[in-house]
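Lab notebook page, bench 4
Experiment: in silico fold of construct C2
Operator: M.H.
Input chain length: 163 residues
Purpose: comparison with the prior construct
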Amino acid sequence: MNGLRTLAWMDTRRMVSCLVVTGLVIAAGCGPSRPATTTVTGTVTYSGKPVDGASVAFVPEKGAPVVGTTDAGGKFSIPGANLGPCRVTIAKASGGASAAAGGMPANPTPADMAKMAAAASAKKPEGPKSEIPEKYGRVISSGLSVTVGADATKNVFTFDLKD
């Protein structure tokens, strides 16, 4: 009788071990799947001239967008783009006017400071101006779309922006 209890106990342990291992295998396979991605490259020009420092975003139908910046030659390389159709946005804001451009003296006197304060309060503050047409910076109005394929060598896109 003691032998049967030992045998039953061993079968129970074996069955529990199998269930635990099966559960772990199932749980490992049930994680969220990530979409396939690749690198996209290309060039951005505006009226035929390279655009330096533009923000280029590839916005897929599903998943997170990827963003990169153009270099002095207007070129970009952005890893992690989802495969499939993507809308593209391109934005480039200027740095705005510098304080020196506003005529600030090197060593302002209290009278200079008062004049600058009065002039600043009379002006409506302006945000940074876009160096390219603003329509390209919005998904809805950019009109730019591409299909990203699995072969990164074929994901070379040229965007020549116009007014």
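Observations: The radius of gyration is 30 Å. The CA atoms of residues 16 and 22 lie 10 Å apart.
Next step: discuss at group meeting.
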